[in-house]
Write a structure and sequence with these properties.
The structure holds 2 protein chains of 2 kinds. Chain A has 8 helices and 9 strands. By secondary structure, chain A is of the alpha+beta class. Chain A is elongated, with a radius of gyration of 26 Å. Chain A starts with a strand and ends with a helix. Chain B is an all-alpha fold. Chain B is 75% helix and 0% strand. Chain B is built from 19 helices and no strands. Classes of the chains: A alpha+beta, B mainly alpha. Chains A and B meet through helix 2, helix 3, strand 6, helix 7 and helix 8 of A and helix 2, helix 3, helix 7, helix 8 and helix 9 of B.
C-alpha cells in the first residue's frame, strides 16, 4: 500500500504543494479573507477547491518562537470512516492506498463529513449539482506510476511518497537518529486504525493542528456492536413477535370460546 | 386567457372559504414550497447555514430525527393492538398509523431537499454497504414506508368500498412481506443463509395461520404488523447508530455505545404521548371526540417508560464516568439539563400526579412536554452536541426554518383532510352502522 510521510522539520512553508495540488487537479483559486490567528496561513481551512493546506503555527521551540508547518489533506485511512459511513460505496478505499470518490452514485447525504475524524471531506454547498471533494492522493498519477503532485513538487523532500511499511521504517529511523528533535510518535501510524498519510514533527501534534484525541481503532469499530448483531435481532424478532402473537391471540380465542360456551 | 381567469377565481374562492387558522397554514405551506423550489435552483448553500463543519442542521435534527421518532406511534400502536393483545386500543391505532404514514412521506420529501444529490437515492437499492448505518436507514425508510402504505390501504378500501381490491390486498400482503423481510435480511447480513432463515421463520408462521393452528386476524395480516415492528425497531435504532461514527465530535453527554438503544426506547416512549397529543388536539381543532378513557389507560404506561429511559440515561452517564460533564457549565450541559428536565423529570412528576393526569389539560400538557423533550434530545444529538473547530458555529438560516414550517404545514393540511374524509376516528361507528 502506497503512503506519504510528511516531516515538519523539513518543511519551509513555501506552499508549492498547495499550488501543485490546484494545478494537477484543476481546482479554482479561492477568494480568501483575513481571519484571527495563524499568521501567514491562507486560507484558514480545507475547502471544496482546496484539498491540501499548509498550516502556519507559532510554537515555542528551544525557548524561542518558531514557525512549524503542518499539512492538512485527506489521511487516506486504512479503514476509512467515510467509506464505512457511505451507504452506497460512493467512497472507495483502493488497494493502492488512495481513498477515491465516485460522484455518479453519491446521494449527497454528507455522512462522510460527519464520520471523518480528520474533518477532511468537503461539500460543494453553492452548486446545484454538488459533489463531495477531497484529496485523492493523486490516484490517477499513482495509477500511472507517478508520485502525487505535492510530493513531486516539494523542494525540501518534506513530503515523501512510497510504500507504507518502508515509510514507517524511514520515519522510525529519522526519529532514532535525532531523538532530541523529534516527538517520539508517528501521527497516522495507528490513528483511526492507521492511515496512508503520516506525519513526524518536532513539536506536539496538537500544536500543528492535529486532533490527538482520535481513537487508535478504525472509526468503523465504534459501530460494529450495533451493526453485527442485526441478523440475530432480525430473525429473533421474527421468532419472538410471531410467538407472542400466537400465545396472546390464542388466549383471547380461548376466553371468547369459554364465554360463548357459558352463554350457549 | 379565460382558463387562467377561471383558475384564479377558483383559487380565490377556495382561499376565501378557509378559516383564519387554515389560511395561515396554507400560506406557510405555499411559502415553504416556494423556498424549496429556490433551494433546487440555487443550491444548499443559498438557503442554509450548513457548512463543512456542520454538514447536518435543523432539517436532520428536527425534520428527520425528531420526525421519525414522533412517527413511532404507528408501529407501537399497531403492535400493541394486533400482536400484544391490546385490542381495546383499536380505536387509536388508525390515527397513529395515519400519523406515521404522513410522517414518513414528509420525511422522504424532506430528505429530497436535504440530500445534495437526491436523484441518486434509488441507487441504495443495488449499491449495498451493509457496514453503514446510513444504508440500514435508507432501506428501513423505503421498506417501512411501503409497510405503512399497506397498513393504511384498508382505510381507503373501506371508504371507497373497494372490496375486490381489499381481497387482493389480503392475498398478496403476506407474500410481499416475506419477500421484503428476506431481502432486508440479505442486504443487512450479506448472507443468503440468514435471509433464508428469515424467510423460513415467516413462512412457518404463515403456514400455521393458514392451516388454522395459529390464530389468524382475517382483517389484518399478522406478518404485516410484524414487519412494521421489525423495520421500525431497526430504523429508530439505526438513526442512533449513525452518530456512533462521530466519536470525536459528539459531546460526551450524548456519545454512548447505547445510543441506538436510547433512540429506540425514547421513540417508544414518545408514542403514547404523541397519540394522546393528536387525539386531544384533534378534539380541540377538528371537533372529534377523543377517547379519553383509552388515553388515560395509555397514560398509565408513561411512568414506567419515562423511568426506564431516565434510569438508562443516568446509568449510562455513571457507567461512562461522564457525570461531571453534566455539572460543567457550558452550552451543552445546559441544553442537556433542559432536555432531561422538560422531557423526562417534569412529565414523570405530572404523570405520577393523579389530580393532574386525570384532567384533559393535564394529560395534554404532560404529553406535550414528553414530545418537546424528545425533539430537544434529537436536536442536541444532531446540532448542539456536535463540536468541531472553534470558529465554526451553526444556527439555522431563516429559510431553513420556514421550509421546516412549510413541511409541517403540509402535514397538517393532509392530516386534516384525511381525518375529515377517511374513516380514521369513526372507524368503530362505521362498522357498527354496517
Amino acid at each position: 500500500m502506497k503512503a506519504m510521510l510528511i516531516d515538519s522539520t523539513r518543511c519551509v512553508g513555501c506552499r508549492a504543494c498547495q499550488v501543485a495540488c490546484k494545478e494537477w487537479n484543476e481546482l479554482k483559486a479561492e477568494e480568501t479573507t483575513f481571519f484571527a490567528g495563524k499568521g501567514y496561513q491562507n486560507p484558514r481551512d480545507l475547502a471544496a477547491d482546496t484539498w491540501t493546506l499548509i498550516t502556519y503555527n507559532e510554537v515555542e521551540v528551544n525557548n524561542r518562537f518558531d514557525w512549524v508547518f503542518g499539512k492538512l489533506q485527506c489521511f487516506h485511512c486504512n479503514v476509512p470512516g467515510c467509506v464505512s459511513a457511505c451507504p452506497v460505496h460512493a467512497l472507495e478505499k483502493t488497494e493502492a492506498g488512495p481513498v477515491i470518490y465516485h460522484a455518479g452514485i453519491c446521494l449527497g447525504c454528507r455522512f462522510c463529513q460527519l464520520a471523518c475524524p480528520f474533518k477532511v471531506p468537503r461539500f460543494e454547498w453553492n452548486k446545484v449539482i454538488p459533489e463531495i471533494t477531497k484529496c485523492t492522493m493523486c490516484a490517477d498519477r499513482v495509477a500511472a506510476g507517478l508520485e502525487p503532485a505535492c510530493a513531486k513538487v516539494c523542494p525540501t523532500d518534506a513530503i515523501v511518497f512510497g510504500d507504507r511499511d518502508e515509510l514507517i521504517h524511514e520515519a522510525e529511523s529519522r526519529i532514532k537518529s535525532n531523538p532530541t528533535t523529534y516527538v517520539h510518535h508517528i501521527f497516522g501510524k495507528d490513528e483511526a486504525g492507521g492511515t496512508c498519510v503520516m506525519h513526524i514533527s518536532n513539536v506536539p501534534f496538537e500544536e500543528i493542528g492535529f486532533d490527538t484525541k482520535i481513537p487508535m481503532e478504525p472509526i468503523a469499530s465504534k459501530v460494529e456492536h450495533a451493526m453485527k448483531p442485526l441478523p440475530y435481532v432480525l430473525t429473533g424478532l421474527g421468532l419472538v413477535l410471531g410467538g407472542v402473537s400466537w400465545v396472546v391471540n390464542r388466549k383471547k380465542e380461548i376466553s371468547k370460546e369459554s364465554e360463548s360456551g357459558k352463554e350457549g | 386567457m379565460s382558463n387562467s381567469k377561471i383558475s384564479v377565481t377558483t383559487v380565490k374562492n377556495f382561499f376565501s372559504k378557509l378559516s383564519f387558522g387554515s389560511k395561515i397554514v396554507w400560506t406557510l405551506a405555499i411559502f415553504g414550497l416556494i423556498l424549496i423550489i429556490y433551494r433546487f435552483a440555487a443550491g444548499l448553500g443559498a438557503v442554509t447555514n450548513l457548512s463543512d463543519g456542520y454538514p447536518w442542521g435543523l432539517w436532520i435534527g428536527f425534520d428527520i430525527l425528531a420526525g421519525i421518532a414522533l412517527a413511532a406511534g404507528g408501529f407501537v400502536m399497531a403492535g400493541t393492538v394486533h400482536l400484544f393483545g391490546g385490542h381495546k386500543y383499536h380505536a387509536l391505532a388508525r390515527a397513529a398509523i395515519l400519523t406515521a404514514l404522513l410522517g414518513y412521506l414528509l420525511f422522504i420529501f424532506g430528505l429530497f431537499f436535504d440530500l445534495g444529490r437526491p436523484w441518486n437515492l434509488w441507487r441504495a437499492i443495488y449499491s449495498w454497504n451493509h457496514a453503514s448505518p446510513m444504508f440500514e436507514v435508507a432501506w428501513c425508510v423505503m421498506l417501512y414506508t411501503t409497510v405503512l402504505i399497506l397498513e393504511f390501504m384498508p382505510i381507503v378500501f373501506e371508504r371507497y368500498k373497494l372490496n375486490k381490491l381489499h381481497d387482493l390486498w389480503r392475498m398478496v400482503v403476506p407474500w410481499l412481506i416475506i419477500f421484503m423481510l428476506g431481502m432486508f435480511t440479505l442486504a443487512m447480513s450479506y448472507s443468503l443463509a440468514w435471509a433464508l432463515a428469515m424467510v423460513a421463520i415467516l413462512l412457518v408462521w404463515e403456514i400455521c395461520m393458514r392451516a388454522g393452528w395459529m390464530p389468524r386476524d382475517k382483517q389484518m395480516p399478522i406478518l404485516l404488523i410484524m414487519a412494521g415492528v421489525i423495520f421500525s425497531t431497526m430504523h429508530q435504532s439505526s438513526l442512533g447508530s449513525i452518530f456512533l461514527l462521530a466519536p470525536t465530535k459528539l459531546h460526551i453527554l450524548w456519545y454512548t455505545p447505547i445510543l441506538p438503544l436510547l433512540f429506540l426506547l425514547s421513540a417508544i416512549m414518545v408514542a403514547p404521548a404523541m397519540v394522546t397529543f393528536e387525539s386531544l388536539m384533534s378534539e380541540k381543532v377538528l371537533k372529534h371526540k377523543a377517547r379519553f378513557d383509552l388515553l388515560s389507560d395509555l397514560a398509565r404506561w408513561m411512568p414506567y417508560l419515562l423511568s426506564l429511559y431516565l434510569l438508562l440515561k443516568v446509568g449510562d452517564l455513571v457507567g461512562r464516568n461522564a457525570v461531571l460533564a453534566a455539572f460543567t457549565v457550558n452550552a451543552q450541559s445546559v441544553s442537556w439539563w433542559i432536555e432531561i428536565t422538560i422531557g423526562i423529570i417534569l412529565p414523570l412528576i405530572l404523570f405520577l400526579t393523579p389530580e393532574i393526569i386525570k384532567t384533559k389539560s393535564g394529560l395534554l400538557w404532560a404529553s406535550t412536554l414528553v414530545i418537546i423533550g424528545l425533539v430537544w434530545n434529537r436536536i442536541n444529538v444532531a446540532i448542539v452536541g456536535v463540536i468541531v473547530e472553534d470558529w465554526e458555529t451553526y444556527y439555522p438560516f431563516w429559510t431553513e426554518i420556514f421550509i421546516t414550517i412549510g413541511v409541517v404545514a403540509i402535514g397538517l393540511i393532509v392530516f386534516k383532510w384525511a381525518i375529515e374524509n377517511l374513516p380514521i376516528y369513526e372507524h368503530e361507528t362505521v362498522l357498527a352502522v354496517k
